[in-house]
Recover the amino acids of this structure.
C-alpha cells in the first residue's frame, strides 16, 4: 500500500501533478516546487537585485505569491517554470523600481505574470540545452543590443528610460531592441519561434 | 494594425516594454483570440522565460529552503517527508489493535502512541490553517494595486531590514529579516505612528529562529495620515506606550 506513495515522494512527479497538489494546499508540494525551481528563481532574482539578503526576501515572496495564486493556474496546460520566473522577475524589478523611487509599473508587469498567460507553452521548455543556446545567443549580440536587452529584462527599464540612461535617441533604442529580439529569435531557430 | 505589422512587437510586449500604439493593438488582438498573435506572443513569452533561466547559476543558501517552506506551514527537515508514512503507520496500528485483539498491554501502548501521533497531526493541521489564513490576509494587502510600500534597514550593516506595505482598506503588512527572536519573556510590538500623534499599538509578533518575521494587521488604515511604522521590544503582554528606542522604524 505504501509503495506508490513512497515512489511518488522519492522520484518526483510531473509539473501538472505538482500543480494539482499545490491547488489542494498541500504544503509538501511546496517543498517539491522549491527543489525543482528554487535555484533558477534565486539566480534570476540575485542577478536583478545584486544583494543576497534582499534576494532571499524576494524568493520567499515569489513562492508565496505562486502558492496564493496557483488556483488560477491550468495544471494540464500551464508552463509552471516560465510562470515562476515571470513572477520572480516582476518581484525583483518591482523592488528595484521601489528602491530607486521610480514609479511602480502598474500596467505592464502584472500583464506579464497572470497564470492564464502560461498555457500551452512547450513542455520541458527550460531544459539545459535550450538555456545554453539562449546564453550563447545573448553573448553573440553586439554590445548595444545586449545592453538594451539586459536593461529591459534585468532592470525593467522602459524604452524611454533606456534612451535616457544610455544617452541615445529613443528611436535608436527602439531599433536596437527590435533588432536584438529578432537576432535572438533567428539564432534560436525552431527552439523558440517568437 | 494587422498581425504582420505587430509581429516584431511580440517580444517587446512579453518583456513589458511595448509602447502605444503597438501595445494597445496587441492587447486588442489577444482580446479577440487572434490566431496569429496568440501563438506569437506565447512564443515570445517562452523566449523571455528562457532569458530568465539563463541568468548566471548561483546556489541559494540552504536556509532559504527552510524559510520558504516554513512560510506556508510546511515541514522543512529534508526532501524525504515522513508525515504521510507516520499517518499510515498510525492508522495501521489502530486497526491491528482492534481487529486482532493483541495482548492488552501491547495494544494499550500502541494506541497511546498512535493517539499521540494523531493528536500531533491534528495540532499541525490547525496551525497550518491559521498560518494560511494569516498569509491570505498578507496577500490581500500585497495584491492591492495602490498599496504603499516602504523599505527599511537597506543600507545599514547588520540591522533588521525589510518592507512595510500599507493599504487603506486591507491593513498593514510587515515583512522583516535579520530580526533575531525577542528574548525570553519579551515580544515584538508594532506601532503605527500618525502624523503629529501618539503611536498606536498594532499587534504583537515573534520572529522565526532564522530572523524572519511576517506580521499582518488587517483592517482600514489612514495611510496618508501615517508618519511611520515602528517596532519595539515589549513584555509578552504587550504595552500601550512604546519603549524607546525602537528596534527599527520605517518612515513613510
Amino acid at each position: 500500500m505504501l509503495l506508490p506513495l513512497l515512489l511518488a515522494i522519492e522520484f518526483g512527479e510531473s509539473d501538472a501533478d505538482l500543480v494539482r497538489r499545490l491547488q489542494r494546499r498541500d504544503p509538501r508540494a511546496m517543498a517539491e516546487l522549491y527543489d525543482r525551481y528554487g535555484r533558477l528563481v534565486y539566480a534570476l532574482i540575485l542577478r536583478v537585485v545584486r544583494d543576497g539578503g534582499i534576494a532571499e526576501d524576494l524568493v520567499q515572496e515569489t513562492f508565496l505569491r505562486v502558492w496564493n495564486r496557483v488556483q488560477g493556474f491550468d495544471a494540464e496546460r500551464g508552463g509552471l517554470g516560465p510562470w515562476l520566473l515571470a513572477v520572480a522577475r516582476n518581484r525583483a524589478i518591482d523592488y528595484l523600481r521601489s528602491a530607486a523611487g521610480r514609479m511602480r509599473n502598474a500596467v505592464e508587469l502584472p500583464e506579464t505574470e497572470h497564470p492564464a498567460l502560461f498555457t500551452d507553452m512547450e513542455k520541458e521548455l527550460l531544459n539545459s540545452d535550450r538555456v545554453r543556446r539562449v546564453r550563447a545567443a545573448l553573448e553573440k549580440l553586439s554590445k548595444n543590443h545586449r545592453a538594451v536587452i539586459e536593461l529591459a529584462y534585468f532592470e525593467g527599464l522602459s524604452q524611454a528610460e533606456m534612451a535616457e540612461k544610455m544617452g541615445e535617441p529613443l528611436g535608436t533604442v527602439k531599433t536596437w531592441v527590435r533588432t536584438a529580439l529578432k537576432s535572438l529569435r533567428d539564432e534560436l531557430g525552431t527552439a523558440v519561434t517568437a | 494594425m494587422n498581425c504582420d505589422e505587430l509581429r516584431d512587437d511580440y517580444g517587446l510586449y512579453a518583456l513589458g516594454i511595448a509602447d502605444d500604439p503597438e501595445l494597445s493593438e496587441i492587447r486588442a488582438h489577444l482580446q479577440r483570440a487572434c490566431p496569429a498573435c496568440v501563438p506569437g506572443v506565447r512564443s515570445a513569452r517562452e523566449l523571455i522565460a528562457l532569458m530568465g533561466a539563463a541568468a548566471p547559476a548561483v546556489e541559494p543558501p540552504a536556509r532559504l529552503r527552510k524559510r520558504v517552506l516554513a512560510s506556508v506551514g510546511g515541514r522543512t527537515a529534508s526532501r524525504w517527508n515522513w508525515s504521510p508514512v507516520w499517518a499510515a503507520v498510525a492508522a495501521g496500528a489502530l486497526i491491528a489493535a482492534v481487529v486482532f485483539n493483541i495482548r492488552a498491554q501491547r495494544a494499550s501502548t500502541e494506541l497511546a502512541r498512535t493517539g499521540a501521533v494523531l493528536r500531533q497531526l491534528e495540532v499541525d493541521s490547525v496551525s497550518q490553517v491559521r498560518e494560511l489564513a494569516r498569509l491570505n490576509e498578507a496577500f490581500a494587502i500585497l495584491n492591492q494595486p495602490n498599496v504603499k510600500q516602504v523599505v527599511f534597514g537597506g543600507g545599514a550593516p547588520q540591522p533588521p531590514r525589510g518592507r512595510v506595505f500599507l493599504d487603506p482598506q486591507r491593513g498593514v503588512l510587515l515583512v522583516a529579516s535579520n530580526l533575531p527572536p525577542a528574548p525570553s519573556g519579551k515580544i515584538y510590538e508594532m506601532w503605527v505612528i500618525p502624523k503629529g500623534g501618539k503611536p498606536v499599538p498594532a499587534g504583537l509578533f515573534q520572529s522565526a529562529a532564522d530572523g524572519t518575521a511576517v506580521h499582518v494587521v488587517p483592517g482600514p488604515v489612514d495611510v496618508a495620515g501615517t508618519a511611520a511604522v515602528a517596532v519595539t521590544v515589549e513584555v509578552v503582554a504587550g504595552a500601550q506606550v512604546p519603549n524607546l528606542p525602537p528596534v527599527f522604524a520605517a518612515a513613510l
Observations:
- The radius of gyration of chain A is 18 Å.
- Residues 1-12 of chain A have pLDDT under 50 and may be disordered.
- Chain A has ten helices and no strands.
- The CA atoms of residues 52 and 154 of chain A lie 16 Å apart.
